[in-house]
Design brief:
CATH class of the largest domain: Alpha Beta
Structural class: alpha/beta
Shape: elongated
Helix content: 40-55%
């Protein structure tokens, strides 16, 4: 199936701007033209691609098609550079699945200075981010999966160290008898979301027990660290994010001898391997500086 470039560009513009009006401004056409192009594309595909709301968002089919449009734009920009085009390539959008803790620590360094690209980051757990790559929703993913996905290249990045921390007051209140399976079963725990299993994994590693403590859910890496400082609960925080708090005594480790390391990998489409070389190199450089070495 050959999809008209103007219709794909219209879909991308609607999702990037969040509205038909914004897409019209981006493309330099009328809002009516935007509506007609999207309708024609949805008719051709046979599925709704955009949820008409404020802002406009993609349906599952729309996400897949928008990722396809991003791939085409990236390949065209790479081809333009290979052909030594006189004009600089247009800014291309890279939609990537990344975990929140990487975004809060070492990842921004990798993205800084990569000219010619715009980044559309989708936050997902490192244990499940690769699922978006398998569905074709993103061009690459930072994931804990080391085995290459079909049609993908995998690059080891390093290990992000987590430490179980809480405020000194919280520890005095809930762990006066020590950090044991019994006290961990009662103490309020912090959890990023329902998929976050770091705390449960650490409990099993540290005590050998399988527990389901009462928990707060806070889907924000910085909010998670702040909740730890405020004494809302204990949780697994990336060591680079809380190192200063540990030095200053605002946070304390529940069991300093029991960190939890999570290996991270960069998985990306093999088809786009050459076009993604600058990004892959930047990720490796930043990971070398911000993560522990791969095992």
């Amino acid at each position: 199936m050959i999809l008209p470039a103007d219709q794909l560009a219209t879909l991308r513009a609607i999702l990037q701007s969040g509205s038909f009006e914004g897409a019209a401004r981006m493309l330099g056409v009328t809002q009516s033209a935007v509506s007609q192009r999207l309708k024609a594309l949805e008719t051709r595909i046979g599925a709704q691609l955009v949820r008409r709301a404020t802002p406009c968002t993609a349906t599952g089919a729309g996400e897949r098609l928008a990722a396809h449009a991003d791939q085409i734009a990236l390949l065209e920009a790479h081809l333009a550079r290979d052909l030594c085009a006189l004009a600089p390539p247009p800014q291309t959008r890279l939609r990537l699945a990344v975990n929140a803790d990487s975004l809060a620590t070492w990842l921004p360094e990798a993205l800084t200075g990569l000219e010619g690209h715009l980044f559309d980051l989708v936050i997902d757990d490192q244990d499940t981010a690769h699922d978006r790559l398998m569905r074709g929703e993103v061009l690459g993913a930072i994931t804990s999966r080391g085995a290459p996905l079909p049609g993908c290249d995998v690059t080891p990045l390093g290990r992000l160290r987590y430490v179980a921390v809480a405020s000194p007051a919280f520890i005095a209140r809930h762990f006066a008898e020590g950090v044991t399976a019994a006290t961990l079963a009662r103490a309020p725990m912090l959890q990023y979301d329902a998929r976050d299993q770091l705390q449960h994994r650490w409990i099993t590693q540290a005590t050998g027990a399988t527990l389901s403590p009462p928990c707060h859910r806070l889907p924000s890496a910085h909010g998670f660290a702040e909740a730890s400082r405020r004494g809302l609960g204990w949780g697994m925080n990336p060591e680079p994010l809380v190192a200063r708090d540990l030095r200053r005594g605002r946070l304390a480790a529940l069991a300093p001898d029991h960190p939890l390391d999570t290996a991270l990998y960069w998985q990306s489409s093999r088809l786009l391997g050459a076009a993604l070389i600058p990004l892959t190199r930047a990720l490796r450089r930043a990971a070398k500086a911000g993560l522990l070495p791969p095992e």
